[in-house]
């Protein structure tokens, strides 16, 4: 019996509700699966036509990639069946994808980057393209293999990043995390053996330095609320910043995506863009004046509240990403001048709204409740946002000991 190939969407979703796409290889009623590195939500998959629906913003790119992957697999299957008609389905999978073992690090990295771009993960694509560039400049050859990336290579590379590119420790660790990600992926795909893995205990460890997230105090936020000598652009920046702060530190990308239809029955309903989790929050009284400020520009219930996303082609994920990034950058420029007028010497950015809420919440909200508001999977992440409260507890304890 001849073997067959078919693209399918596996049913088990990840935490963000996306399911993996895989090529199913079947022979003699036995099947095995080869994941192609792409995930989509079930509602975007046409199971009859075995393709991504047009409703997905990147359907054309994804379907093109799927066709290419099937074409590659079929080519390998035909060549194998010509040599060995009795090959088992598991042997076929192993042999079809054996050619990948010859891939260099950069060839494998390019496949990874292509998948990220096609999946609409433009922020990751931009960052990891830069990381790949650092590695290429360091080793000066595209023939680098995973076996070449040993402990000595990584130690020399860390020194290179600090000296040649003046990268801070956090940035250096991010590049190493990227290499580790590709290495683990290459192990799973049989390109390199685990015994060559250069990370972990007794080898190269990835440890991020503790970073202090300095949020604003209640008094500083009150000062910003009361400022009167602001330009229209600064008023808009303040509005969006306060909107994010009032809604428990909502991310600016989610604030930009808020539509008037998301505001109903005195609550805000939205899906977090970072992890696709649903969230509903009561609208604080302080938010209503901000909403009133933009009502004159409201066209219909489906319109965006803030102007940043208006007119963008929502089917083009790259344009959406650029609009969000540029909008955030412009607001941060205005926030810098607002901080100067408020005589605040801290760095004021959109993301600081999230840290400010977390820091102030330390005096009033249990970490578990803040974790629920933030939709953090790990409580440790939430506690980082309450750093000032934790410091306050330590300071109070110190005073009790030495004030005698």
Automatic annotation (TrEMBL):
Pfam family name, one: Arm-DNA-bind_5
Q: Which family does it belong to?
A: Belongs to the 'phage' integrase family.
Annotated Tyr recombinase domain ranges read 211-403
Molecular function GO terms recorded: DNA binding
Q: What is this protein called?
A: Integrase family protein
Q: Which PROSITE patterns match?
A: TYR_RECOMBINASE
Its keywords, alphabetically, are: DNA recombination, DNA-binding
The question of whether DNA-binding is a record keyword is answered with: yes
Q: Which GO terms describe its biological process?
A: DNA integration; DNA recombination
Alphabetized SUPFAM superfamilies for the sequence: DNA breaking-rejoining enzymes
